[in-house]
Every structure is written in C-alpha cells, then in structure tokens.
Write a structure and sequence with these properties.
2 copies of one chain form a homodimer.
Chain A lengths: L8 H12 L26 E4 L4 E3 L7 E7 L2 E6 L5 E7 L4 E2 L12 E4 L3 E7 H10 L1 H27 L2 H17 L9 E3 L4 H8 L3 H13 L3 E4 L2 E4 L2 H8 L3 H8 L6
Antiparallel strand pairs in A: 1-8, 2-7, 3-6, 3-8, 4-5, 4-7, 9-11, 10-11
Chain B binds a DNA duplex through α1 and α6.
Chain lengths: 260, 260
DNA sequence: CGCTGAGTTGAAACATGTCAACCGGTGTGG
DNA sequence: CCACACCGGTTGACATGTTTCAACTCAGCG
C-alpha cells in the first residue's frame, strides 16, 4: 500500500483556486461567500486553516471541538491494523465534523484534508452554551448527522452490492453532484476532484490497480474522464445509468447544507 | 434472491421470550425494565407494537415521527432497482430511528422488524416542542445519530476492506457485544440472534451461500456456532483476533444508550 | 403428505486482487 | 544543470476469493 503524501505545491494551489471558484474555465465569476457554509454564525472561537494532507483530527484523538468546514475537501477514513484503509466519507463545505457518540470519547476515524481547508472551530466547552441559547442549533446538528448517516448508508450499499464499475461511477457522480450543488446555477460538466486513484480505491473498497482499469474503460467509452484531479463527465445519462442512481437519492445529495 | 418472509410462529415467540429475558438457560431472572431504553420519558403519544417481518417504515415513506426502539431487533436496509439488498445497520433497544436530513423528506432506507418489537412513537409535530422545553434532548438525539454514523463507518470498513471470514466474524462479534451490553453483569456466551444466513449475507455484502461456507468453517474450527438463530461463541479470543477488532472500538459498541 | 423456507454442498465461471514492470512529471541535491 | 528519487499512473500475466448455478436435506406447517 502506497503511502499518502502531500501533493506538489503547484497542484494544491491550482486546486485551491479552483475550489474557491475564483477562476473557472468559462470565465464566470463564482467567488464563494464562505459564510454561507457557516452553521453557527455568531459564536466562534475563530477560523483555522489546515493545509492539504494534514489531519483535522486522527484516530484516537479526544473530542475537544466540533468543526464546521467552510472551504476545502476532507476525507474521513478508518484504518485496520495491517494498514488497510477505508475512506468512509468525503466532507464538503457546510459539513459538521467532530461530534462523537459520547462526551469526550476518542475518535474512531480520522479526518484528512484533501485540499487546503478553512474551518470554523467551536470548542466543546462552548457547545452546550450555544445549544441552550439557541435550541435550534442542536437540531440542525442532528439533521447534519442524519445526512452523514444517509450518505454512509448509500456508500455502504455501493461497496457491498455493486460491481467495481458501478461503484466508481456512483462515487464520481455523487461527488460531482455534491460539488456542483455548491455553485447553484453554474452548469459545468468539468470539475476539480482532488483525489488520487488510490483514494478512489480506498473509498470504493477496490485496489488502485483495478480503479485504474475501470477509469480507463469509462474513458474509452466516452462516459467520463478522470485524469490528474480533473473530472469531466462526457455522458451524464450513461453515467447515471451505470451508477444505478435513484433520482430520489440524488436529490438528497443536492442539499448539502444542514437545517434548510 | 430469495424473498424475505415471516419466521414460523414458534420461533418468533421463543425469540421474543429470550429477547425479553424472561427465561434464560442459566435460570437467572433478567427481566427487562423496558423503560431504561426510553429516551424521552414524559412525552409520548403511546407505544406501538410491530410484529416480526413488518416494516416500521419503508423506502420512500415520509418522515412523520421518530421512533425510540424499546424492545426487539430492527434491520435498516437499502435496495437497488434489481433487488440487490444491503442491510446497513442493526438497531437494538435504545436506538432512535426516523430522523431524516431534511424536514419531511422521504426515507432513503427501510426499517424492518426482525422480531416482534415495541416502539415509543414521537410524532414530528411534538418533537420541536420537546426540544424547546428540554434542550438536552436534541443533543442526545445528535449523539445517538453520531453513534449510528460510527457504527456505519465501522461496517463500511468491514465490507470494503475485510475478507469474507473477517467480515462474518466481525458482525457476529459486534452483535454479540452489543446484545450482551444490554444485560449488564450477565455473562453468557450464547445468545439468540434472530437472523437468517441470507440476512448475514445482506449485512456483510456476501451471498448466503458463501456465508454458509464461512460459518461452517468457523464451526469446524470450534470458534463460533450459528445455527437456527442461536449464536454460541466458543473461542472469544480467536474470534476477536479474526475480526481484527481494536478493543477501543469494541468499547464504543458497549454503550448503546445515547446521552450517557 | 406435499409445500415452503432455511440450510448445505459441489463444480465451474468470473470479477477482482496480486505482483511486477515501466512511464512521465516534479522536486531535490550534487 | 543534470541525475536521481519519488509519486501517481498504466499495463500485462497470473492467482484466488467469491459468485453462480444446481441439486439435495431437513423441519415446520397447512
């Protein structure tokens, strides 16, 4: 299993630019208002930046704060003793991370920044205070967790019951739809997907060798291209068909922000 | 794919008896105080009973109430168009079901009673009222969802990265530990596990034929026996080793009740 | 007494993993 | 400035775990 290292600087920089939408290929200005992903607007102890490749928290870290992801991509992952790795979820801006089942428990999964990221940090000591003042917040938290759960269930179904080809198509489509939902009204069929083939493998339960083969076929069939962190959907209908997506479920992905 | 039908009456009855702990093989009286699994004690619109094999809610049902499972086993499952099925979670007493990512959304997964069950039903119309009166409840809800998420991540890791043998061992151990945690101080290595081999397959992402082979080997190796809904752990250490469980994670299973 | 659901078993097919080699780009150190 | 190491990707040959298909048992039930 290859080690996970940092991306070359030039790449992460261009990813971050693309991520923030400052420049895009059709020239439209889609600058992000970062605050639209902020769950708790008033209360915060300050934003934190994490550079690509670092962990927001690792397996075994104590629960000390919850994070509201404002910008960037994050992968949640688990590890087995012998190094096998499973990416269990991709978090996009708006996500809430770091709430565990019991107060002060240790994390059973890690969270790694795939790009440079910006977080809003809410220390645990303040959380109960907020929820008391504004009871709505805890409910939004719960809804956010429910969304994560739904995504996880969907993912699990993919890994457990779909073929390699279906899994890869499903993941590409999921990430494409979720990403595009962040830029409403902005219709592009191309995006920056800050993943390696190995990470796609870790998310789909496949080896990177096999992911490569599947991607090659999809490319040859002119359905989708993924190359060096750029994803281009050539035939959306075909991809949806392969992924076996119920439009119902696709709709659930569209609403990334909790509480709405 | 075989259809899922009801269990024979005699079996479900004995399961329910065992579940309620009215009689156990060592003669100890372990009658359940059903109320210890009640999340919201005061407010309720009444308990509901669901018989084994029926759905608490199905895929596509609207969110109208949340359920607090008080007694019995429930399987959460998803379906693909062609009938492939994935069990994404097993819910035990104390679980909270039916909160979806957006108000009034439709369920993307179903919930099927594996035994006769008892639920406390809290209609959605009352939920906001409760959380306003007692802000703590929403937070306990969130913690409960966080636990479900953790379980789902763990499950996903199993399906994505473990071999068939490891997956089956892991599932048996998970259910054993979670079940036993409900009867503190009660040390038995035998339990009623109200599943068919096909359901184990649906939970682990395997075919029931292969599950059968794996179980047969585990039986021959005198590690664990599963036969007609009785599970007996013969060599716990060996099973833990095969399952590749981090004791850390096992501890997280132990606390089934939210908010503690 | 036949039917049905669950479990069991074997043989063959096939999807995916493993191992190994090689390519091109990027950063790095001499 | 070049040589080198390293990472991510690509490809082929082969190994193997799991599925598929099919037949058969057993128990409970009408």
């Amino acid at each position: 299993m290859r080690e996970l290292k940092q991306l070359p600087n030039s790449l992460t920089k261009s990813i971050a630019d693309n991520q923030r939408g400052q420049v895009d290929r059709d020239g439209a200005d889609v600058s992000a208002d970062i605050n639209r992903f902020r769950l708790i607007s008033g209360y915060r102890s300050g934003d934190r930046r994490i550079e690509a490749g670092r962990d927001l928290f690792s397996i075994g870290s104590p629960e000390d704060a919850i994070f509201n992801l404002l910008d960037g991509w994050v992968a949640l992952y688990t590890l087995l003793e012998d190094g096998r790795r499973q990416i269990v979820q991709f978090a996009l801006p708006g996500a809430v991370l770091g709430l565990f089942p019991t107060r002060g428990a240790q994390a059973t999964f890690g969270a790694q920044a795939l790009t440079d990221t910006v977080l809003c940090v809410i220390p645990h000591s303040k959380l109960s205070e907020f929820t008391r003042d504004e009871p709505d917040i805890a409910m939004r938290l719960a809804r956010s967790l429910a969304r994560d759960c739904n995504l996880a269930f969907d993912h699990m179904t993919s890994i457990g019951r779909r073929s390699a080809r279906e899994r890869v198509a499903h993941l590409l489509l999921e990430l494409f739809v979720r990403y595009r939902a962040q830029w409403p009204g902005h219709r592009i069929e191309e995006m920056c997907l800050p993943l390696t083939q190995e990470q796609i493998g870790d998310a789909t339960g496949l080896t990177f060798v096999h992911v490569n083969r599947v991607l090659r076929v999809l490319r040859k069939e002119r359905i989708a291209e993924f190359h060096y962190r750029r994803l281009r959907i050539l035939d959306p209908d075909k991809l949806i068909e392969i992924a076996g997506i119920d439009p119902q479920i696709a709709m659930a992905w569209l609403d990334q922000r909790p509480g709405s």
